[in-house]
Amino acid sequence: MGSRVSREDFEWVYTDQPHADRRREILAKYPEIKSLMKPDSNLKWIIILMVLTQLVAFYLVRDLDWKWVMFWAYAFGSCVNHSMTLAIHEIAHNFTFGHHKTLWNRWFGMFANLPIGIPYSISFKRYHMDHHRYLGADGIDVDIPTDFEGWFFCTTFRKFMWVILQPLFYAFRPLFINPKPVSYLEIINTISQITFDIIVYYVFGIKSLVYMLAASLLGLGLHPISGHFIAEHYMFLKGHETYSYYGPLNLLTFNVGYHNEHHDFPNVPGKNLPLNCTITDVNGIPKIKRSSPDLQLPDSSKIKEVKESYICDALEDLKFFFKKRKDILRLINEDLHYLYTFGLISSYAVELIKPSTAMEHI
Predict the structure, then answer these.
(1) 23 contacts 264 by C-beta, under 8 angstroms
(2) Contact, 109 vs 120, CB < 8 A?
(3) Which pTM value belongs to this model?
(4) SS3 assignment, position 73
(5) d(C-alpha 352, C-alpha 127), whole Å
């Protein structure tokens, strides 16, 4: 279903990632950014509230019909659980209690992990640090799809399935690319998570357990919030590997959309990344211009590599996607690193059901 992509390989570069050099340059010009490198005092209270919210949800769905269990798992639980994975991202950077209390952060990460249903926090911490140190490095950075994924998921329909199955690839990819010895904290994380799942089953019932697990799988797969997985590092502009999103979904994702800023300054918590953005003025970073209600698409006819600060106002206007879905589908089919991001899913599904002339001429 859908034609194959024209690309047959990844984009290979043989230079160091740019963020370390840019960090030095920015700090030399704006040393006041160091004042933003401090723990987020509100983070732990937000996470505790999120855990309690899901506990209330477990209670409320326990007697619902299955169709409503799945509906609320996608409409509500998936948003909370996806947001919780990004809270765990913040914890992995020690933003809860600071770098001098690393073990406190690891224990709190296990607590935040509980409503997700799958042991995740400790392993994520270990691999995510590699992602920052060796961004895009073959065989080390497990955020990059495998050769098999790039080879097999090469049509519109297969890419659609890849998006649905993304949580599984994200979970199992490290075992094939860069397996690491199991640590004692990972064992504790696994035991505590299984124990919590059993408690949910016996206290609330099977529907609450299914709600919890479905919320995680759906929220990390075919879900608008999951667009950041692809929007962050898939190469839309040649030579640029990291992109930022400044739209409203940052309110649910602890500002993970400020991704250039995050990689430039991984010691700045998400709460302070907008402040970092207002301080800096770095040239040579790609920006998708938005001078009208129609956001300019990142394809060969509309990309403009402008020397301004960070990518700005990216992909936040849902109305734009409904108007431009044919151009988006053309981009999807022409490049392995296809555009699946905030607000795209609805218009993309329409095109799958009713092929357009744009599909016929690709």
Answers:
(1) yes
(2) no
(3) 0.76
(4) helix
(5) 35
